[in-house]
Amino acid sequence: MKPFTRTASLMAAALIFLSGLGVARADVVVFAAASTTNAITDIGELYAARKLGRMVPSFASSSTLAKQIGNGAPADVYLSANTKWMDYIAQKGLVGQGSRADLLKNRIVLIAPAKSALTDMVVKQGFSPASALGETGRLAMGDPGHVPAGMYGKKALESLGSWDEVKDRLAPMKDVRAALVLVERGECPLGLVYATDAAISKKVRVVGTFPESCHPPIVYPVAAVKGGNAEEARRFLDFLQTPEARTVFQKYGFGVR
Q: Which amino acid positions bind molybdate, per UniProt (predicted)?
């Protein structure tokens, strides 16, 4: 092979290799709470449409994502459904300096299958969610040991004096969307989820809304992950604060801060 031809071939091969790396690389990797799945997916599409870059999301319980980040999982942005798990990665020195902000607000509600005969419940001091479970039914909710929706739910039920009657009748799930699915399928007569989760499903209906005074404020903090791609993280964080992104969050029922 002639030297020029060989050099050209090597350059072409290198370009193909580098191009392949570019295709495989995500512009910004976003670890986001399961309850934000629909909103963040839509925002990612807008982000790409504006030619700002590509967003590759990973959705799970905030606790699962925080532990993955703590164990070195590659992430650029973390959006948590509570402050505890953001504090967890902050204590490990994994929050980009000056990047943390409170982004969203939410509510927790009780849901039943859409065709359930269950009447609406007045959620107040001393109310009895167990009465809606029948003899063998369980209350579907995120695991109160680590899933934010479940943690908020436990606090609310404790505050209202109703926790003891349901604590042994839970169907604790890995994240809030899994709890939603149990009720959608009719496998549980009652579920405790975010208002935003209930709003996206035609297979459930809200039968009770918890007063905001009975649990800590439901706040979603967001931050860049230290060690990630700081430039792309900053660009995506800035986009989350735009009117376009805020409109998407509001469309799905989130309060924006």
A: 35, 62, 149, 176, 194
